[in-house]
Amino acid sequence: MIKGFIFDLDGVLTDTAEYHYLAWRELGKKIGISIDRVFNEQLKGISRTDSLERILTYGNKSNVYSEQEKSKLAEEKNEEYKKLITNLSPDDLLPGIKEFISELKQANMKLALASASKNGPTLLKQLGIAEIFDTIVDPEKLSNGKPNPEIFIKGAKQLGLSSIECVGIEDAEAGIQSINAANMFSVGVGDQKAMQFADMFVSDTSELSYTSILDAVKKKRKGVER
Ligand code: BG6
Ligand code: MG
């Protein structure tokens, strides 16, 4: 029985995945590494410091900067990102998200946020949905980021539920791996190729619906019992 839904933030609740991309691209320009959307898929769901490491490796510059310089670069990216999200408001919820979340609450589902972003709590407030979420996993307290299952397992625990009672929703390949490894039903949004291992796929957030997800969960579990 499904009792909780655990959400990724960037690219699922709002289109900040785009702003992360723009901010990394800007930083890339400054350090002579050109980043495109194809490479950016590998950064989705990945923490700020790990993203920088991936970018430096991609640009053959992994040994160029000291730890101190790297944290300055990561901070610069975050400052640029924060500029881009200054005016984010409830109007920036992705299509259908507001309705989907209300549908879940009406069905007495518990909601958790499992985002790698340290900007998560601020963003939920800006989007006007902070009160609706029962809990937020603190990414600073994780030993392992996505694709490790830790963040989704913690989300379920914080809701007082077991993994099998939760559904995880993601737009990143690393995120789907994380949900699957947590033994949770995974719903992927957006890029079909990146979402190829999701239990259920929707191309757009407006297609998210509580009843169709429940049907898909039941179908999968029937298949397993057979
Ligand atoms: C994830 C994003 O949600 O959060 C990544 O998909 C981002 O792109 C990560 O790097 C960390 O975010 P922040 O806001 O802590 O830099
Ligand atoms: Mg995401």
Structural account:
It is built from 9 helices and 6 strands. The longest helix has 19 residues. The chain has 226 residues and is of the alpha/beta class. It is globular and about 50 Å long. The protein folds into 2 domains: 147 residues, Rossmann fold (3-Layer(aba) Sandwich); 68 residues, DNA polymerase, domain 1 (Orthogonal Bundle), CATH 1.10.150.240. The structure holds 6-O-phosphono-beta-D-glucopyranose and magnesium ion. The site of magnesium ion has 10 residues, from loops.
N-to-C order of helices and strands:
EHHHHHEHEHEHEEH
CATH superfamily of the largest domain: HAD superfamily/HAD-like
What is the domain total for the residues? 2
CATH class of the largest domain: Alpha Beta
Low-confidence region ranges: none
Q: In summary, what is this structure?
A:
The protein has 226 residues and is an alpha/beta fold. The protein has nine helices and six strands; from the N terminus they run E-H-H-H-H-H-E-H-E-H-E-H-E-E-H.
